[in-house]
Amino acid sequence: MDIRHRRLRESESIRRLTRETRISAESLILPIFLKDMSGGPSPIRTLPGHFHHSPLCVPDVVEQSVEEGVNKFLLFGLPQSKDERGSAAWDEDGVVQRGLRALRARFHGITLVTDVCLCAYTTNGHCGHVKNGRIDNDGTLDTLSRVAVSHASAGADIVAPSDMMDGRIAAMRRALDADGFVNTLILSYAVKYASAFYEPFRDASDSAPAHGDRRTYQMDFHNRKEALKEAHKDAAEGADILMVKPALAYLDIIAALAAETNLPLAAYSVSGEYAMIKAAAAAGFIDEYRVMCESATAVFRAGAGILISYHARELAAAIKKGDIG
Ligand code: PBG
Q: Which residues line ligand 1 (CB under 6 A)?
């Protein structure tokens, strides 16, 4: 008998019935940039459609997103001033801490994730402390733990260390538990490549390194086994959720890790992935909506269960329409 694959594709209803990849808006996390400023929101040049929000006005964007079906957020902070240690990162009255409190006071049932890193807070723009011109890995762990605890006490449900220092998950878990935050989850940026795809973000968060680059602590994109090793280490240290970042150029890594880990797996479709789609669409070269749908679905097809995306709100709308999911 003739095998006719086309039978399965004849009607929209059957095509939807037999989809192998299912996406729900529940799987989406929207990044939000909190800036210590008065007024706002002010547009971010490198991320069209995204804005810097003050702690005072951030509830507005969260409310709109929740209405559109996205109720999970990843918060980044841009402090008013930086110093060598990045002390604004753990300031009780820091921009992320105030944003968290404002959101907690107004919403129930939303999930707040915070990026834990120093690069936006230090004058040198590195993710860890610098000592004698080199990254002081072990000397950074206490600082990161302190930042995580301050986020948890201001209302973060999940802390997400993106610094890539070795041993940070264990240090952070210990510190959180010691302060009674036993239910605060850790989403580890476990597999984070040294990537040119972060460029628009560094503009958005004013966090480019003042000297050198991040290649001593972020991963070399030639490596795959190292990614699995990093991920297993973070899992053993107590990470609750693992992440691969960026997403689209690393689908092989997502697939490999999905096959091995028992932890929930997230992927971060980073600023450069978003900016490329936006720029090509603005030039009239591609259809933004269709490329967005196809790219996001690929990440889930590869095996991720959670997607952090600057397109989260538009994706939720596409899911509602049935175009994906
Ligand atoms: C901070 C951090 C970065 C991103 C997330 N957290 C930048 C970097 O590591 O250089 C990038 C996110 C994006 O590009 O959207 N360490």
A: 115, 117, 119, 127, 162, 198, 201-202, 214, 270-271
To which CATH superfamily is domain 21-321 assigned? Aldolase class I (3.20.20.70)
* Residues in contact with 65: Cβ distance below 8 Å, sequence separation at least 6, in sequence order: 30, 71, 73, 312, 313
Rounded mean pLDDT for each run of 10 residues along the chain, 325 residues in total: 80 93 97 94 97 97 98 97 96 98 97 97 94 93 97 98 94 98 97 96 90 90 97 98 98 98 98 98 98 98 98 98 95
In DSSP terms, 76 is beta-bridged to 33
Residues, the chain: 325
Dist. CA 87–CA 193, nearest whole Å: 26
Best residue among 76, 162, 214 to mutate for probing ligand 1, ranked by most atoms within 8 Å of CB: 162
What are the phi and psi torsion angles at 33 (to 5°)? -100, 120
**Inter-helix orientation angle 225-237/251-260, to 10°:** 50
**Gap between the Cα atoms of 130 and 285, Å rounded:** 43
The pTM of the full predicted model, rounded to 2 decimals, is 0.96
Residue 316 CA to residue 157 CA, distance in Å, equals: 22
Taking alpha carbons only, the member of 213, 210, 169, 172 closest to residue 188 is 169
